[in-house]
Design a protein that fits this description.
Oligomer: single chain
Radius of gyration: 25 Å
Strand order of the largest sheet: 15-16-17-19-18
Structural class: alpha/beta
Strand content: 15-25%
Shape: globular
Distance between the termini: 20 Å
């Protein structure tokens, strides 16, 4: 069975009618140190009922939509997001028309175009979108992805000089370039025009270019700041295609197939963790369809090597496809991802995919070793006091992996964390990850202004920095002073929101397909989480790289396969292993497992609780 309420209203809380006080199954403190609370408010539940009746939706789907802010009048459009229906006029973006005109002129003059992309997934997919579009026009282009260690982030003088010497007449920077003042000054000196397609937050001052398209620049009022760079790039090629059509370029010839680029747009959008709202949802929904068609042989090869069985989901993009594309930029050849996404040679695609898979394995081993050391530092810091922000680091840490280590430590200790790789000269390159409600990027920018950092920036949930070792103690004191209050408030409200309760018997393939109507799920549109009350742990063991595999049974004889990823060495994993043969409350998300053409449902365990300690 499924039910909207998985436990009675305990009445706990501070105010009558407070929608945030209703505990699910009476779990006020889970193994993950969270309270379980029903996600939909009473008002949202009423909206869901009306939505279900008007549109003929299953009530659980309507509840998922209503609990994520989808109103009754929005639901029908939300359930079928289309590119055509959600596509804005690209010209609403500041500088779009200038940028389009400059690139169209380069195409008319047959001037070689160089594409400079960031070394992450968003940069690789953005580069590939523009490259593949130009290739369909028969126009020469060349992609340069900087080496993370040697060149660092963004355009740089040596790369610009090299591209100019190779004959480039125009440089298009994607997912970078909005603050590249020195590099673009050098570009002007060598006679290289620059266009920027970016999405990172910037101040009022911008470098001189032939067009800087960024929905997050201060003078842009498009309302499209939620787009990843690949989304901005897709809008750019739409506008460019329109301009080329106006110029008569397509007379007597077919236009490029823009919809064939949506698989790239989906991958970049999901992996850059931008909110899945508006046009982003359409990119992902339609892009997953394009991905299933396997027209991009690079993505097809990577899907095969990552063992993506059945239709891809945002989970596959974020946790199987994305990390492998990223692996080249982190510890190998930064250009591998872009090469994979632009090749039309199936054999080359397979070879690159295998290399990226190997590099991803090496990255995982490096990460595990660094995390072991970083976790020990974090634990010691927490035992010695209660720092608002954890600063970890060591000589010899790989700069390409520090962000992943920071993310793991942040998850374990529920507070912002930095991981810093120190070089022999005492300079540290670090990456930080935050928790909801704590703006880490703002604190880092303030630290730069205070002279505590050589460089630094980012956004609320992630930031990067360059720091001297002698400034580390002062930086720790500064960050603690800036963020302690926000961190404490965020940690006090540590909640797992539950969409409803179900049993193992009710977790069917048909239920999952119904829930998919409310997707795709991801950042800004979280996947549904269900509580399974009082299920027996029929089986539990450790598999793979520290995962805990389970079989859960309900009172009616139903069983459900489940897995808690990377949980073996955590309190959650220990609890599940200890409870073999006993009953537990479990919370998690459903996913479809396809094996040899057969579909089955699996629960991805997020948390658990002891029924004996619940306040029912």
């Amino acid at each position: 069975m499924t039910s909207p309420l998985s436990g009675p209203d305990t009445g706990a809380g501070t105010g009558e009618g407070d929608e945030e006080t209703r505990l699910v199954l009476g779990v006020s403190r889970s193994i993950g140190d969270r309270s379980w609370r029903e996600r939909p408010s009473r008002g949202e539940a009423a909206t869901a009922l009306a939505m279900s009746q008007r549109l003929g939706l299953p009530e659980i789907v309507a509840r998922v939509l209503a609990a994520r802010g989808v109103g009754l009048d929005q639901a029908e459009t939300f359930l079928d997001p289309t590119i055509k229906g959600l596509m804005p006029d690209p010209s609403v973006l500041t500088d779009m028309d200038r940028a389009v005109e400059r690139v169209a002129d380069a195409i008319a003059a047959r001037a070689p175009i160089a594409i400079f992309g960031d070394y992450d997934v968003d940069g690789a997919t953005s580069s590939a979108v523009l490259y593949r579009y130009l290739a369909e026009l028969g126009h020469p282009a060349r992609i340069h992805i900087p080496d993370r260690i040697i060149e660092g982030y963004g355009p740089n003088g040596p790369a610009i000089r090299m591209l100019r010497e190779e004959g480039a007449g125009l440089l298009v920077c994607v997912d970078c370039g909005s603050v590249s003042f020195e590099a673009f000054a050098e570009a002007r000196q060598v006679g290289l025009d620059v266009v920027v397609l970016d999405h990172h937050q910037v101040g009022e001052e911008l470098p001189e270019t032939s067009g800087l398209v960024n929905p997050n620049r201060q003078d842009d009022i498009s309302g499209l700041g939620h787009l990843a760079a690949v989304g901005v790039t897709f809008l750019f090629v739409v506008a460019l295609n329109r301009e080329l059509r106006r110029r008569g370029v397509f007379q007597g010839r077919a236009q490029p197939d823009l919809l064939s680029l949506l698989d790239l747009a989906a991958v970049g959008t999901v992996c850059d963790v931008v909110p899945l709202k508006g046009l982003n949802r359409a990119f992902v929904r339609k892009g997953l369809v394009a991905l299933h068609a396997r027209a991009n042989c690079g993505l097809a090869a990577l899907s095969d090597i990552a063992r993506v069985n059945g239709p891809a989901t945002p989970y596959h993009l974020g946790f199987l496809i994305g990390p492998r594309i990223n692996a080249g930029g982190r510890i190998g050849d930064a250009a591998l991802g872009a090469r994979l996404l632009t090749t039309h040679d199936a054999d080359e695609a397979r070879s690159i995919a295998e290399t990226l898979d190997r590099l991803n394995g090496e990255r995982q081993a490096i990460e595990a070793e660094m995390l072991l050391e970083g976790d020990a530092q974090a634990l010691a810091a927490c035992e010695a006091g209660d720092p608002a922000v954890l600063l970890t680091g060591a000589d010899g840490w790989h700069p390409g992996v520090v962000g992943l280590v920071a993310s793991r430590i942040k998850e374990r200790y529920r507070r912002p964390a930095f991981a810093i790789a120190w070089d022999a000269e005492g300079k540290g390159t670090g990456s930080g990850r935050s928790i909801p409600g704590v703006d880490l990027g703002a604190a880092v920018r303030k630290a730069v202004a205070e002279g505590l950092l050589e460089k630094g920036g980012g956004h609320a949930m992630a930031a990067g920095l360059t720091v001297r070792r002698e400034k580390l103690t002062d930086l720790a004191v500064f960050l603690d002073g800036q963020l302690a209050e926000a961190v404490e408030a965020a940690r006090q409200s540590h909640v797992l929101k539950i969409d409803g309760a179900l049993t193992a018997s009710a977790a069917s393939v048909s239920l999952l397909h119904e829930l998919e109507k409310a997707g795709p799920f991801g950042a800004g549109h979280s996947e549904p989480v269900f509580a399974l009350p009082s299920h027996r742990v029929k089986f539990a063991d450790v598999v793979g790289k520290g995962h805990v595999r389970l079989t859960l049974g309900d009172g009616g004889g139903g069983s459900l396969k489940a897995i808690a990823f990377k949980a073996a060495d955590t309190p959650l994993g220990a609890f599940l292993m200890e409870k073999r043969g006993e009953t537990v409350h479990v919370a998690g998300a459903l996913s479809l497992d396809t094996w040899q053409g057969r579909e089955s449902v699996q629960l991805r365990v997020l948390d658990a609780a002891d029924p004996r300690k619940s306040r029912l």
